[in-house]
């Protein structure tokens, strides 16, 4: 339990803590952005759209073995396309990308705006074969309860993820008569 989890109003002036070993080297958290190797993830999403991926050098482990050499890891940014609240305290999120298997979801962060709302349990809904609801993935780290459509979420990936490997989720087009 962190101070920002106990007193959410602190998030307006103090960024949520992060595990520096799971994020790339030279990652700096601010109250509304994440800067990885001098690249703002909010600005990256503005320039390239979402989903977007940034690759940087791995952070050194806490206890570095003698022959350790850094490898490349990635940070993915996705946009929330739909938010549903079926009951109090449970939030279902639909993202514009399928989550990669190497994603570290206990480090997911809301970027692009400051939020002082309390934390809530989040589930990511995956679209499968054109169906509206596929499997649910519970996010191990809660996000602020006021997550809304268009928000950006950012999470580290333990391997290199190329932009062409990120599978975007396309919105379904409804016939004109509906």
Unreliable spans are 171-178
Given helix and strand content, the structural type is: mainly beta
Give the N-terminus to C-terminus distance in angstroms: 47 Å
**How much is the radius of gyration in Å?**
17 Å
> Sheet with the most strands?
8 strands, mixed
Helix and strand string, N-terminal first? Answer: HEEEHEEEEEEEE
The CATH C-level class name: Mainly Beta
Helix content: under 10%
Describe this entry's structure for a reader.
This protein is mainly β and 178 residues long. The protein has a single domain (3-61, 70-163), classed as Lyase, Ornithine Decarboxylase, Chain A, domain 1, CATH 2.40.37.10. The protein has helices at 3-6, 41-48; strands at 27-29, 34-36, 39-40, 52-57, 72-87, 90-95, 109-111, 119-125, 136-138, 143-144, 152-157. The strands form two sheets. Strands 4, 5, 6, 7, 8, 9, 10 and 11 form an eight-stranded mixed β-sheet that branches. The protein has a three-stranded antiparallel β-sheet with strand order 1-2-3. A hairpin with a 2-residue loop joins strand 2 (34-36) and strand 3.
């Amino acid at each position: 339990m962190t101070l920002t989890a106990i007193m959410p109003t602190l998030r307006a002036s103090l960024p949520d803590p992060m595990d520096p070993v799971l994020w790339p080297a030279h990652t700096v958290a601010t109250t509304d952005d994440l800067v990885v190797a001098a690249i703002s993830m909010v600005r990256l999403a503005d320039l390239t759209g979402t989903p977007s991926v940034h690759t940087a050098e791995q952070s050194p482990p806490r206890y570095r073995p003698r022959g350790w050499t850094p490898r490349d890891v990635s940070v993915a940014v996705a946009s929330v396309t739909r938010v549903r609240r079926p009951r109090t305290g449970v939030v279902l999120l639909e993202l514009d990308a399928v989550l990669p298997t190497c994603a570290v979801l206990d480090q997911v962060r809301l970027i692009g705006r400051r939020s002082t709302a309390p934390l809530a349990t989040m589930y990511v809904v995956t679209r499968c074969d054109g169906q509206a609801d596929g499997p649910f993935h519970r996010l191990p780290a809660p996000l602020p309860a006021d997550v809304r459509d268009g928000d950006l979420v950012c999470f580290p990936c333990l391997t290199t993820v190329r932009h062409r490997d990120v599978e975007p989720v396309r919105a379904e087009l409804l016939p004109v008569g509906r």
